[in-house]
């Protein structure tokens, strides 16, 4: 009964999300910006801050400015050594790029010819198979092991990147877990509730250990509209709520210390992504870092829904396609991610992007974040508690 109710509420939440999209889609399309995969609202691009020197330049210029050609990464994938033959291309690390939006985003960046992509994943075989399925040229990407559910794995990954003297031009914090049917929290290797551990703390440590390499780079977080209880989608229970972060400080399963609820844990972790984006923008954008987030849309066919019931996974995309007409494909979401990574029109640091439609004709525009995510004191407090928890 409880599970059924939760499923129904989740379904309503997603529908509300789509309806909210419809309500928010008021800006008409503008011509696709040069070098962009998607369209950009003129007002947003006009407000864009200047890009970091050497990192966000148009592709042709960037080729001469970025030199990673000598970097060699050794990957244990299938027991063979892979060379990151960047050849003057820019380098983008995407976490969780073994499926879904991350893999599709990698495909677009790699196919542009301007980027070499590091697929930072916990399963080599899955990433390799996924890249092959999408027809990615093996010379355009490198698969590396990163399990965000283990702080040791994060440290090892960073050590490998540093040893290879790779200075990433972009990092996409994309990986996430959502366990909607769990009654008890799963734990990471370090004992954190998994949604907060993987979606936030693993990324927090990753970014901090790579901070020297990222000073002039673009850092992108993947957000969700349901992080915001002020939005129609976000009003559907369980709502995101971090409170004063006391539960997190005590390493309880829920950030605000309430009883474990898996979908709330996921939403809360996505609020943390926005808080982290805003705090990083405050601390590092003046030095040249461009840090932003995007809500790619409701992507009902992505593997993120793998733990939902069969009837939901079968029916929801159909409902979106024919009833709300708001089905955003995984491919389109990947295109949007690639744009936030690479387009000079989406180089406004501190911005949370969204699009005003479901297909490639949609236009990027700035989105609001939740009241909790706007609170600067909470941004700072999350940073401090997270630093303590991951030991930096
Ligand atoms: N789908 C939507 O409607 C939607 C909407 C808004 C935002 N988003 C966000 O989009 C991002 C991508 O989600 P998606 O829809 O593309 O789902 P997805 O295909 O499930 O992608 C999530 C990825 O995270 C990886 N991952 C999970 N645990 C990990 C760990 N411990 N270490 C490293 N990687 C790990 C998964 O790897 P494995 O393959 O090994 O499991 C998977 O590749 C997420 O941040 C999600 O919150 C999705």
UniProtKB/TrEMBL annotation:
It comes from the Eukaryota. Pfam families: adh_short. One of its GO terms (biological process) is photosynthesis. It is an enzyme of class 1 (oxidoreductase). Pathway: Porphyrin-containing compound metabolism; chlorophyll biosynthesis. Residues 1-24 form the signal peptide. GO terms for molecular function: protochlorophyllide reductase activity. Coiled coil: none annotated. Keywords: Chlorophyll biosynthesis, NADP, Oxidoreductase, Photosynthesis, Signal. Its EC number is 1.3.1.33. InterPro entries: NAD(P)-bd_dom_sf, Prochl_reduct, SDR_fam. Belongs to the short-chain dehydrogenases/reductases (SDR) family. POR subfamily. This is protochlorophyllide reductase. It comes from Ectocarpus siliculosus (Brown alga). The gene is POR.
């Amino acid at each position: 009964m409880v599970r059924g109710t939760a499923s129904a509420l989740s379904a309503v939440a997603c529908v509300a999300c789509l309806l909210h999209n419809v309500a928010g889609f008021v800006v008409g399309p503008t011509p696709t910006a040069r070098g962009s995969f998607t369209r950009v609202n003129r007002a947003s691009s006009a407000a864009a801050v200047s890009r970091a020197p050497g990192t966000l330049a148009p592709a042709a210029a960037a080729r001469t400015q970025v030199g990673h050609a000598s970097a060699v990464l050794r990957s244990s994938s299938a027991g063979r050594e892979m060379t990151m033959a960047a050849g003057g291309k820019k380098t983008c690390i995407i976490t969780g790029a073994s499926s879904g939006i991350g893999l599709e985003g990698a495909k677009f960046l790699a196919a542009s010819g301007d980027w070499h992509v590091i697929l930072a994943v916990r399963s080599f075989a899955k990433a390799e198979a996924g890249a092959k399925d999408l027809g990615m040229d093996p010379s355009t990407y490198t698969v590396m092991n990163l399990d965000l559910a283990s702080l040791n794995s994060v440290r090892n990954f960073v050590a490998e990147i540093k040893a290879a003297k790779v200075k990433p031009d972009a990092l996409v914090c994309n990986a996430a877990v959502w366990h909607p049917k769990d009654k008890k929290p799963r734990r990471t290797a370090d004992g954190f509730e998994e949604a907060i551990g993987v979606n936030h703390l693993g990324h927090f440590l990753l970014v901090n250990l790579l901070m020297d390499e990222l000073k002039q780079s673009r850092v992108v977080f993947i957000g969700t509209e349901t992080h915001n209880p002020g939005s129609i989608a976000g009003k559907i229970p369980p709502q995101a709520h971090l409170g004063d972060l006391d539960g997190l400080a005590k390493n309880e399963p829920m950030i605000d210390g309430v009883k474990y609820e898996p979908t709330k844990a996921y939403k809360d972790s996505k609020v943390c992504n926005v808080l982290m984006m805003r705090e990083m923008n405050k601390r590092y954008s003046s030095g040249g870092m461009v840090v932003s987030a995007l809500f790619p849309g409701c992507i009902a066919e992505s593997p993120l829904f793998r733990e939902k019931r069969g009837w939901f996974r079968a029916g929801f995309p159909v409902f979106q396609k024919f009833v709300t007409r708001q089905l955003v494909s995984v491919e389109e979401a990947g295109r949007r991610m690639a744009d936030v990574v690479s387009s000079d029109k989406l180089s406004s640091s501190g911005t949370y992007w969204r699009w005003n439609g479901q297909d490639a004709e949609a236009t990027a525009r700035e989105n609001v974040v939740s009241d909790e995510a706007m609170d600067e004191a909470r941004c700072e407090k999350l940073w401090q508690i997270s630093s303590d928890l991951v030991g930096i």
